[in-house]
Amino acid sequence: MPQVHQLTINIINRSSNPLPTYATEGSSGMDLRADIEEEIILQPLERRLVPTGLFIELPLGYEAQVRPRSGLAIKQGITCLNSPGTVDADYRGELKVVLVNFSSGPQTIKNGDRIAQMVIQRVEIARLIQVDEIGSTVRGEGGFGHTGKQ
Ligand SMILES: O=c1ccn([C@H]2C[C@H](O)[C@@H](COP(=O)(O)OP(=O)(O)OP(=O)(O)O)O2)c(=O)[nH]1
Ligand SMILES: [Mg+2]
């Protein structure tokens, strides 16, 4: 699968870990690594803001999504509490990951562990126009499971 990287993004790496990379040529996300001096032990249902040591300069019209890794979720019950985390184009602070432990036992995070993945996405910047009526549809106001389960 040929992949052309047309988009370049400036990033500062103050961690001792390598820059995030796409693990395979078809990967959507680049894994983010924990940049921590001491290991973190997350107790059941405990949440923690985990630093990455990364500072990104996203072009306007893009966002970065911080998403969970499925392996961590299924093996250790660890996920991103605010999934998907939204990194705004104008954010210049450190990229951090809001981890939570949904397992029944303590879970350990070590420096350099790949704790989440970052997906770069285009976003539309919309202008809202206030009106009194909006167009009708077949679905109408039905939602939240109104079409059933099967
Ligand atoms: O998983 C995340 C989510 C957010 N952020 C950073 C970048 C983002 O631009 C900023 C604000 O995130 P968000 O808008 O989700 O949080 P908020 O609670 O609305 O804070 P703010 O009032 O600063 O927008 O925090 C992260 O580093 N990781
Ligand atoms: Mg916000």
Number of helices: 1
The CATH class label is: Mainly Beta
CATH topology (level 3) name:
Deoxyuridine 5'-Triphosphate Nucleotidohydrolase, Chain A
Helix and strand sequence = EEEEEEHEEEEE
The protein's oligomeric status is single chain
Radius of gyration: 19 Å
Any ligands, ions or cofactors bound here, and which? Answer: deoxyuridine-5'-triphosphate, magnesium ion
Give the helix/strand layout.
Layout: E1 10-13, E2 30-33, E3 40-42, E4 47-51, E5 54-57, E6 62-67, H1 70-76, E7 78-80, E8 85-87, E9 96-101, E10 107-109, E11 114-122
Antiparallel strand pairs: 1-5, 2-11, 3-10, 4-9, 6-8, 6-11, 7-9
Would you give an account of this structure?
- 5% of the residues lie in helices and 33% in strands.
- With 150 residues, it is mainly β.
- The strands form 4 sheets. Strands 2-11-6-8 form a 4-stranded antiparallel sheet, with no helix packed on it.
- Deoxyuridine-5'-triphosphate binds next to strand 8 and strand 9.
- It catalyses: dUTP + H2O = dUMP + diphosphate + H(+).
- This enzyme is involved in nucleotide metabolism: it produces dUMP, the immediate precursor of thymidine nucleotides and it decreases the intracellular concentration of dUTP so that uracil cannot be incorporated into DNA.
- Keywords: Hydrolase, Magnesium, Metal-binding, Nucleotide metabolism.
In short:
This protein has 150 residues and is mainly beta.
